[in-house]
Design a protein that fits this description.
The protein is of the alpha+beta class. It has helices at about 20-25, 30-40, 50-55, 65-80, 100-105, and strands at about 5, 15-20, 45, 85, 90-95, 95-100. Helix 3 (about 50-55) crosses helix 4 (about 65-80). The relative contact order is 0.22.
Length: about 110
């Protein structure tokens, strides 16, 4: 099994993620857009509302429905694999980088 380190902004390894898990996480187009938005943020954290706007291209989307979907589906998956910390009370997502995730995203057509 191949593993990749997930690191914080100081370069310290938080945990590892295996290749199969990365591909499962990136299999969903909405999660790819979500992760791409997190990859591009300067300080590795975003409020959920801003993340939804940055990762949504459909202008007629129901933002509350999308927020529920992110809260109950996508964010828990990313949190379980160590890519994010999601503070639901502060509505803030903290992203941790994984080189394999960035490499796979770079090869996809967002």
């Amino acid at each position: 099994m191949n593993e990749c380190q997930i690191v914080d902004e100081d370069g310290y390894a938080r945990c590892t993620c295996d290749t199969d898990a990365v591909f499962r996480l990136l299999a969903d187009a909405r999660r790819r857009k979500l992760i791409a938005a997190l990859e591009s943020c300067e300080d590795d954290q975003l409020p959920l509302s801003k993340l939804i706007r940055q990762s949504t291209t459909d202008e007629q989307v129901d933002l509350e429905a999308r927020k529920r979907e992110f809260h109950h589906v996508h964010l828990p998956m990313l949190d379980d694999h160590g890519l994010i910390d999601y503070d639901s009370e502060a509505d803030l997502i903290r992203y941790y980088h994984c080189e394999l995730v960035a490499d796979v995203l770079a090869m996809t057509d967002l």
